[in-house]
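Exercise 7. Predict the joint structure of the components listed below.
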Amino acid sequence: MAVVETRNLTKIFKAGELGAVNDVSLVTEEGEFLVFLGPSGSGKTTLLRMIAGLETPSSGEILIGGRVVNDLSPRERRIAMVFQSYALYPHLTVYKNIAFPLKAQGVPKAEHRPKVEWAAGLLGIGRLLDRKPRELSGGERQRVALARAIVREPAVFLLDEPLSNLDAKLRASAREELERFHESVRTTTIYVTHDQVEAMAMGDRIVVMNFGEVRQIGTPAEVYDEPADTFVATFLGSPPMNLVEKDDLIVGFRPEHFFPVTVLAGRAAVPEHLLPHDREGPYVPLGLRVTHEEYLGAERVVYGLIEGGPFQGKKVISRMPSTLVAHYAPDTVHAFAVTERQLKFYDRATGRRTATRLAPGAWR
Amino acid sequence: MSARPAARRLGAKLLLAGVLVFFTVVLAFPFFWMLIASFKQNIDLYTVENNPFKFNLPPTLEHVRFLFTQTRFVRWLGNTALVGVIVTAITLLVALPAAYSLARLTGRWGERLGIAIFLTYLIPPTLLFIPLSRVVGLLGLQDSIFSLVLVYPSMTIPFSIWLLMGFFKSIPRELEDAAMVDGLTRFGAFLRMVVPISVSGILTVVIFSFTLVTQEFVYALTFISPEANQMIGVGVPIFLVRGDVYYWGSLMAACLIASLPIGIVYNLFLDRFIAGFTVGSVK
Amino acid sequence: MKRQGASGQSPLLGIAMFAPAVLYIVLLIGVPFALAVLYAFSDARIGSTSFHLVGLENFRSILQSPSFRKALRNSIVFTLCAQAIVIVCSNILSIALEKPFRGRGFVRFLILLPWVAPVSLGTIGWKWILDSIYSVITWVLVTLHLFKPFNTPMWLGEPHLAMASVILVHCWRLIPFSTVIMLAGRSAISKEIPEAAAIDGAGFWRTTFQINLPMMTPILSVAVLFGIIFTFTDMTVVYILTAGGPYDSTQTLPSLAFATGIAGSDLAAGAAISLFLVPVLVLVAYGMLRLARRAEVV
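Solution:
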């Protein structure tokens, strides 16, 4: 188990162009599950590959377990990697696949079987040892890839979007298995994905990246509840955070904090279960002219335009549990509101979070 | 620790370069040699002590002039071109519909027949040339270039069908279905829809047929005796020798002139042929 | 075989579109093949119309002929030696050509010349290079004082050297072809596999021999099978380079078949000799079918 650290790591592929990775400095914590999250082209995979030793950095340092590893080949870094396609050797049996790293690093033959069986047992694939990869299902292949990775007892695990090749149904159970696996081995793990749901579910901390730069590092709660800039704010959470502009500020509020004030004619205003801890504190009323609503089973999503006030006509989204029975017909206007405390403010020029806030009076 | 990987990388690069240089020299050398010999004066060429790598006497166009004026070189080029064009046309006419029907219409049988056709490609001219020489004689085509026009398609058609089959299979069926819904017959859909978008496959067949005609040796040697009717591949080695004397200068010039254009064109399309060879084995 | 096409005429149309090709193949490959078998059992000659079946007479006489036995042995030896050299060289060369570099297109063009140029013309080039008196190789060796000026090797005149020369020209022609096929095979291996091997701790040699080569077995087999066909059934190289000499030492089955059947006018004997190509062709066809079937299973 070791800590991975990067210092001012940069990778430029074409001279004169923006780097794929720009001046990234981060430190993992021992035993944590760290997620690199970002859209395609954000540099997260390049960053991972540099840590693995598959790409040479243009500048900066990589440290594993306190040692600078820039000049070490992948095999010397004591890391293990699971690729997007799992990269199982198709001509070898599962047993030989798992044993391959042991063979390559000169582990005496007598020790192969016990180690392979230990790794296979950990992942529950003991009965598959004589099969070839092409005879396995997607989930089984992932487990073989993990077994091959763990058999060497590496210091760090690197995973490059291992779930993206699985179909949706399989993805959920495979994800759960990965989480359980991490719980049992507790090796420092770096996991790359573009799926923010995966990141939120699995990560101890998330490194949010865009255009080769780190936008924010934090726990899922930190990056979700207190996003450091508009990119993080809109990348995490689906539907994304509502953003409206005023003067040189951008105001943001999440759809689930944007709730209806009255539900049906005759019902109480501000239903209690929509304001768990925000019951205290002022809320900012906003009118909503509905464009359409979506009933998604567990929740209801309402799309519309703000009616009245300085943000007239801006597109916003609201999201509420479907236990709240209501109907929002197109082109009707309803009274909605946001708790003042939940508003986030961003500087319009830079997109970064700012302490400046709009006075509640400015909303009228 | 930092000197080792850098030195290792440099060593690997040098080894790589060495390998490339070695093979490039060995493989391309004969053509470079043809180039030099074509322009060397005879005295220079046939003096054993002279350094063969440089022009000890000034270069000359004598051999090239000899080739074009005193031999049937141009005639052979013409024969080859004519046969090439006709054979290519026949190949396209026969192989296109056959490949289409195999790819689309005959289901699993199509697969088996396709493999059977590919296997016929493995029956070499050196097995068939003897009986075919008799057949050619019986048909009265002995010594005529039309004997080759008749026989060459048997070599080009099987591989062309295989090539085009793979090509047609990659065109989605929906295209023709849409055309037929719009009112075309299946054959009409084939002619008006599929053929026009298969230009790249057709081009590959054209190049393949043409280069096969220019490369072929056994049939041309067997069926045609008179010098004037011969193909380039046979004419050059057989008839540029007067008695037992090899006119090496002109011979080299002939080889070069006949090889390079074909070589360049074939090279441009090589990737497609390789795809044709390997389409069954690489998934 | 009735299929529900959008137009009801599918099966008939299919057969019609396919028929000319079948006709061509049957008439110009199938029939001659049958004829070759027939001639082998006959006394056909060029210039005579007589035709009698003579049973196994032709086979008996050629099996007793030393030239035939030499030719059979040569065919096998040339093919195996050439293939062995070609496999090794094309593997090395395909590794060298895998990664892009400046000028790679031009280098590829140069390397491909032996294959794309017509067989006969390339072979003539070698004939000049290997000439007994004027060979450039000889000149280089003499200049390096490895040989005395009047005691130089007869590349095409001395039996063992001649055999080596024929094998050399075959290799020269086949290496480009095999290399291109290998390159295609290498590029089909997903890039993540060698990376996984690197992370697992495999060095260059282990990755090449335990991972890359085994994965390339199907395509390697294609290259080898075609290479065998091209060498075993070729008569052009031998005919032009040595005409089978000296003293039949470079004669192969196809070139002997030509010499006997056409030059020697004995069609029947020639046909019989050429039929000995068939067993190898059948083996190769079997190999191809096995490969095709395995590819479908995957």
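Discussion. The first helix of chain B runs from residue 3 to 38.
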